[in-house]
C-alpha cells in the first residue's frame, strides 16, 4: 500500500518538473519533438534510478560511517558523472540499438539537476506516505526514484505533444519560442495541482 | 569589452535568464518572494565569482580531456564551502532555499561561464564576468520574486500592502512558470525597441 502511495505521489502529486522545478532546462530543451522527448525520458529514467541507488549505498556505507556527510554534494556529482560515462560505455557494448536511441542524451544528463536533486532528497529528507515521516529505505528509495523519473517522462511527453501542436499555430511575435512554452507549462502545472488532494 | 561593460552586460545583453535561458530550476523554485529570490541570486553569485577566479587560474594547466570534471569539482568545492558557511551563519536562509543550494553545482550558468569565459580570459576579467552575470541573475530573480510576491501575497519584501491572502497560485508552482513566461514576453518586447 505504501509503495502505491509513493508511486502516485511521485508521479502526479509532487511531479518533479511541475511541482518541484527540477530538470527544467532539459525539459524545455528537448521537448520540441515527441520522439526526442521519449528518448530523453527513457535515458533519464534509467540514470535517475541507477544513480539514486548507487548514491544511497555510498552515503549509507561510506559517507555516514566516516563522518563525511558534508562531502555529499561533491561525492554525489562525481558518482553521477562517472555513472553516466559508464552507462554510455556499457550500453554501447551490449545494446547498440538502445545506445543509438538514448546515446545523444546521456552526456546531457550529468548536468540535469533532477538526477542530483533526487539523489540528495532521498538521503536528506524525511518523507510522509500514509503514516509517520521517516527516511526511505533502499527499496523505497529505488521505487521513489523510478516513479519520480516516470513522472518526468510523463510531463515531458505530454508537453512535447502540446508543443508540436503549438508550433503549427500562429503565435504573436513576442510570445514565440520559449515564452509561450513557459506559459503552457504553467497551465499544465495548474492542471497537475488538481492531484494535490489525493495523497 | 570594457571593464564597465563586463559588469553590466548581465543586466540586459547577456541576461542569464531572459537571453541565455540558463539556470531555470532555481529561477522558478526559489522566487516565491522577493527576498528569497535575492538570497538565491547572491548565493549563486558567490559561487560564480570564486569558481570563475580559480578556473581562470588553473585553465592553462588542466588537460583538455578532463577539463569538465575538473571544473565541476572546483564548483562543487565552492558550493560545499557556501553550504557550510550558510549553515553556520544564516541557518534560516539555508532552510528556506533548501535543496537548491547544493544544486548550484549543476546550475548551467556556473559551468557555462567557466567554459565560455573563465577558461579563456585573465583572472581580473573572469572575476568581473562573475560579478556581472551574478548581478544580472540576482536582479532577475529579485524582479520575478517581487512580481510573484505582489500577486501571491500582496506584499513586497515582506511589507504587506493588501489585506488577506492574495492569489495563492502565484506562490505555488504554476505561478512561477506563468510569471516567467510573461516577463519573458515583456523583455522581448522591450528589447526589440
Explain this structure to me?
The complex is a heterodimer of chains A (199) and B (193). With 199 residues, chain A is mainly alpha-helical. Chain A has one domain (2-197). Helix content of chain A is 70%, strand content 0%. Chain A has helices at residues 2-13, 24-29, 34-63, 72-94, 96-102, 106-109, 113-124, 138-167, 178-193. In chain A, helix 1 (2-13) packs parallel to helix 8 and helix 3 (34-63) runs parallel beside helix 7. Chain A is globular and about 60 Å long. The termini of chain A are close together. A two-stranded antiparallel ribbon of chain B has the order 1-2. In chain B, helix 7 packs across helix 8. Chain B has 193 residues and is mostly helical. Chain B has one domain (3-192). Helix content of chain B is 67%, strand content 2%. Classes of the chains: A mainly alpha (199), B mainly alpha (193).
Provide a compact summary of the structure:
Chain A contains 9 helices and no strands. Chain A has helices at 2-13, 24-29, 34-63, 72-94, 96-102, 106-109, 113-124, 138-167, 178-193. By secondary structure, chain B is mostly helical.
Amino acid at each position: 500500500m505504501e509503495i502505491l502511495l509513493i508511486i502516485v505521489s511521485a508521479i502526479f502529486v509532487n511531479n518533479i518538473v511541475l511541482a518541484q522545478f527540477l530538470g527544467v532546462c532539459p525539459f524545455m530543451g528537448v521537448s520540441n519533438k515527441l520522439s526526442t522527448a521519449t528518448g530523453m525520458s527513457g535515458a533519464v529514467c534509467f540514470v535517475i534510478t541507477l544513480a539514486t541507488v548507487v548514491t544511497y549505498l555510498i552515503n549509507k556505507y561510506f559517507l555516514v560511517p566516516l563522518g563525511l556527510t558534508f562531502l555529499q554534494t561533491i561525492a554525489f556529482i562525481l558518482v553521477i558523472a562517472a555513472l553516466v560515462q559508464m552507462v554510455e560505455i556499457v550500453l554501447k557494448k551490449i545494446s547498440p540499438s538502445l545506445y543509438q536511441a538514448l546515446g545523444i542524451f546521456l552526456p546531457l544528463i550529468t548536468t540535469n539537476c533532477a538526477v542530483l536533486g533526487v539523489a540528495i532528497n532521498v538521503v536528506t529528507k524525511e518523507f510522509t506516505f500514509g503514516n509517520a515521516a521517516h527516511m526511505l529505505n533502499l527499496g523505497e528509495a529505488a521505487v521513489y526514484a523510478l516513479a519520480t523519473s516516470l513522472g518526468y517522462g510523463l510531463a515531458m511527453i505530454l508537453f512535447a505533444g502540446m508543443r508540436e501542436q503549438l508550433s503549427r499555430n500562429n503565435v504573436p511575435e513576442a510570445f514565440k519560442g520559449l515564452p509561450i512554452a513557459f506559459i503552457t507549462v504553467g497551465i499544465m502545472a495548474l492542471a497537475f495541482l488538481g492531484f494535490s488532494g489525493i495523497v | 569589452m570594457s571593464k564597465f561593460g563586463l559588469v553590466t552586460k548581465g543586466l540586459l545583453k547577456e541576461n542569464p535568464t531572459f537571453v541565455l535561458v540558463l539556470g531555470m530550476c532555481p529561477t522558478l523554485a526559489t522566487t516565491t518572494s522577493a527576498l528569497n529570490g535575492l538570497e538565491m541570486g547572491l548565493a549563486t553569485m558567490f559561487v560564480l565569482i570564486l569558481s570563475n577566479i580559480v578556473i581562470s587560474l588553473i585553465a592553462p594547466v588542466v588537460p583538455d580531456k578532463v577539463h569538465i570534471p575538473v571544473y565541476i569539482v572546483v564548483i562543487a568545492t565552492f558550493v560545499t564551502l557556501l553550504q557550510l558557511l550558510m549553515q553556520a551563519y544564516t541557518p534560516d536562509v539555508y532552510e528556506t532555499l533548501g535543496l537548491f543550494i547544493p544544486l548550484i553545482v549543476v546550475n548551467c550558468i556556473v559551468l557555462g561561464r567557466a567554459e565560455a569565459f573563465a577558461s579563456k580570459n585573465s583572472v581580473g576579467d573572469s572575476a568581473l564576468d562573475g560579478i556581472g552575470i551574478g548581478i544580472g541573475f540576482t536582479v532577475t530573480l529579485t524582479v520575478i520574486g517581487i512580481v510573484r510576491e505582489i500577486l501571491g501575497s500582496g506584499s513586497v519584501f515582506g511589507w504587506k500592502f493588501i489585506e488577506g491572502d492574495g492569489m495563492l497560485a502565484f506562490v505555488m508552482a504554476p505561478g512561477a512558470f506563468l510569471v516567467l513566461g510573461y516577463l519573458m514576453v515583456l523583455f522581448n518586447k522591450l528589447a526589440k525597441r
